[in-house]
Amino acid sequence: MASFLQACVRVHTKNIIHNLQIARQQAPQARVLAIVKAELYGHRINQVVETIEKNLLDDDVLGVTDLPSAEKLRSLFKHRRLLLLHGVFNQQELTSCINNNIEMVVHCPNQIDLLSSLPQKSLPLLWLKVDSGMGRLGFSSLQVESLIDKIKALKPHCLMSHFACADEPLSPLNEKQKKSFASFKKRLSKIPYSSLANSAAILHQLTPMDSDSTQYIRPGIMLYGGFPNNMSQKNSIINTLLPTMSFEAPVISLKKAHKGMTVGYGADWVAPEDGYIATLKAGYADGYPRALGDKAQVFFEGQYYPVVGRVSMDLMAIYLHPSSYQPNAFPKIKIGDRVELWGKNLDIRQVAEKADTIAYELLTQIADRVPRFCDD
Ligand SMILES: Cc1ncc(COP(=O)(O)O)c(C=O)c1O
After folding, report:
1. Which of 197, 217, 236 is a domain's end point?
2. Rounded distance from Cα 218 to ligand 1 centre (Å)
3. Ligand 1, closest atom to CA 105?
4. pLDDT band at residue 3 using 50, 70 and 90 as cut-offs
5. What confidence score (pLDDT) does residue 5 get?
6. Is 161 contained in some domain?
7. Are residues 270 and 195 in the same domain?
8. What CATH number should be reported for the domain holding residue 72?
9. Within a domain: residue 318?
10. Which burial class, exposed, middle or buried, applies to 100 when counting CB atoms under 10 A from its CB (0-12, 13-18, 19+)?
11. What dihedral do alpha carbons 106, 111, 113, 114 form, nearest 10°?
12. Among 54, 150, 179, 265, the one annotated catalytic
C-alpha cells in the first residue's frame, strides 16, 4: 500500500472485465483484439493484464504498439495471440517477432520488403492495414494495386483500417471510410478476417456487429471506462460501462483560511469567506493537469470540494467552505485522508473536459512515481 504521503492509483480490475464483457456482447460472434498499449492506458500492473488475458477466448488477441511491451506480454503468456500494431522496422525486430510468435501489422512498403525476404513458412500471421480515410498508417488503394502480387504472396490473415471520426457517429467520413474499406475487401477478397471497429465504432455499431464471425473488434478506451467524450449520454450501452481507475491524493496540511487570503502561485485565488484550506500532495508531476487549477473538484466521503489556486508540480489545494462542515466544528477532512481526483465519484471524462483534453490523455499521463494498486 502507498504511504499516505503519496498520490496513488487504485485500479478496479473487475470493472475492466465488466467493460470487456460489454464489448463482447456488442459483437458476440466476433473475435476480440483487446488494446492494452501504453501499459493498459496507464493502468499498468501485470495483475490487470493477467486478468484480462484470462477473460479472453482462445482466438482473441492482445494488441500493443511497441516491441518491448509485446516481448513482456510473451514472457507472461506463452500461448496468447499477440499483435504488434505498428509492425516492425528492421530485421532485428522481425526476428524477435518470429522467435516470440508475435503477429504484426503491415502498413507500408518497407515492411512488405522486409517480410518478402522470408520463406513462406516462417511468416508470422500478418494484419494488412489499409488507409480508408485516417490518412496516417496504411496502404492507399494505389499502393495496394502496385504491390498486389507481393501482398498476396504474404497471405495476410486480417485486413484492417481505422476510423478517424467514430466518436462522431453522424460524420460523413464514417460512411466514406466504410465504403472505402469495402472496396479494399473486394480487391483483397482472399484475406479471411477484417477489423475496423475501435471502442467508439463498437458503441455506435458503425460496422455490422451481431452476425459477423470474420471480424475482430478492437476495444481500447471502453475497457478503461473513458470512452470518447462527445458521445450522447443517452446511449444506454455507454452508461453500463464502469470506471476502472481512481486517482487519489493525500491531505498533508490543513489550515484555517480567513476571508481574503490567497492561495498558491500567482496569489490569484482569494478566499471568499473563512473556511479551511487542505493541501494535497499531488501536482502536475504526478499527472494531475495544471489546467485544472480553479476548475475541478475532488471528492471525499460524500462531498465535493473545489480545487483552488494553481496546481503546482507536487501540490494542489482545496477549499473547505464553511457550508461543508458543522458550524464551530472541525471539517471532516483530516491530514492523512485521501481524496479522489477522479474515479468512481468523479467521472474522468468530465474532469478531462475541464482540462480541455480527453480521458485517454489523463489516463496515460499519470507519472511513474505514482504507485498503482488493484483494489479488487
Ligand atoms: C489500431 C487501433 N485499434 C484500436 C484502438 C483502440 O482505440 P480506442 O481506444 O479509441 O478504442 C487503437 C487505439 O488508438 C488503435 O490504434
Report:
1. 236
2. 6
3. 1
4. low
5. 83
6. yes
7. no
8. 3.20.20.10
9. yes
10. middle
11. -110
12. 265
pLDDT digits (tens, 9 = 90+) for 70-120: 999 999 999 999 999 999 999 999 999 999 999 999 999 999 999 998 998
pLDDT tens, residue by residue, 320-363: 998 887 777 778 899 999 999 999 999 999 999 999 999 999 99
Whether residues 211 and 312 fall in one domain: no
Question: Is residue 1 situated within a structural domain?
Answer: no
Residue 264: per-residue pLDDT: 96
* CATH assignment at residue 275: 2.40.37.10
Both 231 and 250 in one domain: the answer is: no
Residue to mutate (ligand 1; options 198, 217, 348; most atoms within 8 A of CB): 198
198 C-alpha vs ligand 1 centroid, how far in Å? 5
CB 209 within 8 A of CB 237: no
pLDDT for the residue numbered 239: 86
Calculate mean pLDDT across residues 298-309. 97
- Out of 40, 206, 218, give the residue to mutate to test ligand 1, the one with the largest number of ligand atoms within 8 Å of its CB: 218
- Whether residue 271 sits in one domain with residue 150: no
Residue range of the domain that includes 136: 13-236
Residues 142 and 264 occupy one common structural domain: no
Q: What are the start-end ranges of the E strands in the chain? A: 8-11, 31-35, 61-64, 81-84, 103-106, 126-129, 158-160, 193-197, 215-217, 245-257, 262-263, 269-270, 275-280, 297-300, 303-308, 316-320, 338-342, 372-374
pLDDT computed for residue 233 by the predictor: 58
C-alpha cell at 332: 471532516
What mean pLDDT comes out for the span 28-34? 96
Domain limit, last residue, from 207, 236, 265: 236
3-state class percentages of the chain: helix first, strand second, coil last, to nearest 5: 35, 20, 45
| Judgement on whether residues 24 and 41 belong to the same structural domain of the protein | yes
Task: Give the residues surrounding ligand 1 with Cβ less than 6 Å away.
Answer: 35, 85, 162, 198-200, 218-222
Q: What torsion do the CA atoms of 62, 67, 68, 69 make, to the nearest 10 degrees?
A: -20
Same domain, 255 and 231: no
The answer to whether residue 234 is catalytic is no
Number of domains composing the chain: 2
The residue to mutate among 19, 41, 130, 162, having the most atoms of ligand 1 within 8 angstroms of its beta carbon, is 162
Task: Say whether both 217 and 336 belong to one domain.
Answer: no
Task: Give residue 204 CA to ligand 1 midpoint distance, Å.
Answer: 15
